[in-house]
Each structure stands twice: as structure tokens, then as C-alpha cells.
Amino acid sequence: MQPCKLTRAALLLSLLLCQGGCGDSIIFDCERKTVSTQASPDRRWEAEVLSVGCGATTPLAIQVQVRRVGFPSWLNRSQVVSVAETSEAPLISWTDSQTLEISWVPSARIFQKATSLDRVEILYPRWGTVEASAEAPSPSMEP
């Protein structure tokens, strides 16, 4: 396997193994930082964009997770719906209470792209067609 493919494979494996929280993993010590969060219009769902760094040998990844609001955390683990190798956070926007749009930069290497979670439909419009939320900071994630 080529070194570049091996690094990407290691990144993907580490993200998939610690989707529920890298801090809980005894195998991987990944640093997770919240970039932005956005609640659905009815406040029943929350989308969170996180940067995930698992050390100098793996590239920075960005993941988007969705969770129901109002449930105890032990009952309500966030579900990772999209993961990409990139330094640019995606633009996220709720078009209504059950539709989340995630727009990745064209250069992002996307590893995971769920199309639904429970009653939430997840769409992936082309970069630049989703308006950034007033709550979300600038999408730039310089390492």
C-alpha cells in the first residue's frame, strides 16, 4: 500500500472506531474541537461540526454529527453523519426542521456521507450554494 493511502486508511479507521467520542477510546487519543453548532428550526435536533486531530501522522479531519436535543447524554449519543479529510469546515444549514444541508469544499476528501438519520434528511448541495448560519463562525480551519 502506498504511504498516502495508508495514512488515509489510518485516518478513516480511527474516525470510524471512535465516532462516539475519541476521548473514550483507549486505542486512539484524538483531539476534538467544536467548530460550530446549529439547532434545527424546531430545536429538536442539533448539528455540530468538529475538527478531529489524531496526531502528527494523520491529516486533520472534519466531521458533522447530529443529535436529538433534550435527551440525557447517556441515552443520546451523537451520530456522525459525514466525515472528510480537509482543513475547511463545511457550511451547514437547516432548510426546515427535518432537512439538514452540508456543503463541503470541492477539495475535501469525503469518507462518509449519510443521507438520513431517524427523521432527518441530509442533503449535500454543491459548495457555495448553502448560506452560512449567523451562529456559525467562519468555515476556515487553519491548523
SSE layout:
Layout: H1 3-17, E1 31-39, E2 45-53, E3 61-68, E4 79-85, E5 91-96, E6 99-103, E7 109-113, E8 116-117, E9 120-123
Parallel strand pairs: 6-9
Antiparallel strand pairs: 1-2, 2-3, 3-4, 4-7, 5-6, 8-9
Tell me about this structure.
- There is one protein chain.
- With 143 residues, the protein is mainly beta.
- The chain has one domain (3-20, 30-123).
- Helices cover 10% and strands 38% of the residues.
- The chain has one helix and nine strands, in the order αβββββββββ.
- It has one helix at residues 3-17; strands spanning 31-39, 45-53, 61-68, 79-85, 91-96, 99-103, 109-113, 116-117, 120-123.
- The strands form two sheets. It has a five-stranded antiparallel beta sheet.
- The radius of gyration is 15 Å and the shape is globular.
- The two termini are 27 Å apart.
Provide a short characterization of the protein structure.
The chain is mostly beta strands.
> What is the number of beta strands?
9
Give the ordered list of helices and strands.
Answer: HEEEEEEEEE
Q: Write down the Rg.
A: 15 Å
Distance between the amino and carboxyl termini: 27 Å
- What is the strand arrangement across the widest sheet? 1-2-3-4-7
Q: Specify the biggest β-sheet.
A: 5 strands, antiparallel
Return the average pLDDT rounded to an integer.
79
The stretches of 5 or more residues where confidence is low (pLDDT under 50) are: 20-27, 134-143
**What would you call the structural class?**
mainly beta
Q: How many domains would you count in the coordinates?
A: 1
Please give the share of residues in helix: 10-25%
Shape verdict: globular
Q: How much strand?
A: 35-45%
Report the total helices.
1
